Amino acid sequence: MSEQTVTPGTGVTPEEPKAPVAPLASVEGVPPAPHPVPEGAPPLPEARPGVPVAPPGVPVAADAASKPPRRVLRALGRWTAAALAFGVLGTGTAFGIASLERTDVPGLATEGDGRWDYPELSLPALPAGSPRPFSPGNPAEIHHADLRELLLPAPAGAKPDKKLTGGWISTETFLDAYREQDRRSVAQLLKDAAPRHIAARGWTMPDGTTSRIYLVRFNSTAFASRMIDDLEVGSSAGTPLARTDTADLDPAWGSADDIENLSSFVFAEQAPFGSEHVRQAYTLAGDTVALVVHERPGKRQTARIPFQQTLILQNQLLA
To answer: Of 212, 203, 200, 193, nearest to 170 (Cα)?
Structure first.
């Protein structure tokens, strides 16, 4: 093994002379070594990744080949920007449509079906510790809320009834709902059942339709159910109301319209009727019986949809 020496002041060991290396022959897959550039010749173009450099004097085809990728990138950028713009526009349109009423959207508008404009409803507060009427903790199905607060409010445009203002009413005022010849018998039924409270609200709409809602609360569900039976309400309207002739079951009301835990009996006066048309319904809701009446003077029938709307909303407050 030969001895190595260190050049003073450098600390680097000089390398041993190496034998000259002959140029590599051109083999498949390995480009030949570049030729030296003659003195005074123009410099070779700078190499770019992926683009071959041609020798001097040879047209550079790589520059033309490099343009399509740039055009593709520019086109891709334009399409991306357009897609984003249309996406933002489409999203804005979707949110705009979602915020509109159905009747405000062209092509989706529907004619008014005659529904009344009721205010937003909310259930009244219960006394502390009192359950809702049909909750598991209330097997007697008692309504603990103030009965007056369970009355459906009048819709927009209604003229309030001066006698039925939404407060407590007497038994005599409730009996006015029935024909004069039947009031004595109904009064006896109420005396036997001994209701705790009776609340009522009434109003008249611009088209002349008069609405009246009575809520009668009894001491138990048994007394409320017995009142329905004693009035002979079921397959028929039972004891006739004032200003009515014959009211039959309304075929437009089905079991799908009923609310869970409530039983509704819906009737409509059939033609030929008298000087006004009457729709009526009884609802048994636990310890409370509701009577909803719509009347309309003249030969035109009382509108079905507002009546069903009123009944459903009132039932929801009792459920």
So the answer is: 200
- Give me the domain span that covers residue 184: 147-318
Q: Does residue 316 have a pLDDT over 80?
A: yes
Read off the pLDDT of residues 2-16 as tens digits, 9 standing for 90 and up: 444 333 333 433 344
Sign of the alpha-carbon torsion through 159, 160, 163, 169: positive
Structural domain contains residue 79: no
Tell me which residue of 308, 317, 246, 257 sits closest to 285, measured CA to CA. 317
Torsion sign (Cα): 112, 282, 121, 135? negative
CA angle 156/241/301 to nearest 5° reads 55
- CA 172-307-132 angle, to 5 degrees, is 70
Domain total in the chain: 1
Whether residue 293 is contained in a domain is answered as yes
Percent of the chain topping pLDDT 70: 65
pTM for the model stands at 0.66
CA distances to 72, 103, 115, 145, 156 from 111, in Å: 52, 8, 11, 38, 19
- Has residue 100 been placed in a domain? no
Question: Residue 154 sits in a domain of what CATH number?
Answer: 3.40.1000
What is the predicted pLDDT for the residue at 246?
79
Rounded mean pLDDT, 144-156: 97
CA atoms of 62 and 60, how far apart (whole Å) = 5
How much is the pLDDT for 254? 86
Q: Is residue 5 part of a domain?
A: no
| pLDDT tens digits for range 76-107 | 455 554 444 444 334 333 333 233 343 433 33
- Helix/strand/coil (H, E, C) string of 187-201? HHHHHHHCCCEEEEE
The whole-angstrom distance between residue 234's C-alpha and the CA centroid of its chain comes to 35
Positive or negative: CA dihedral 8, 13, 16, 22:
negative
Residues 6+ apart with CB under 8 A from 14: 5, 7
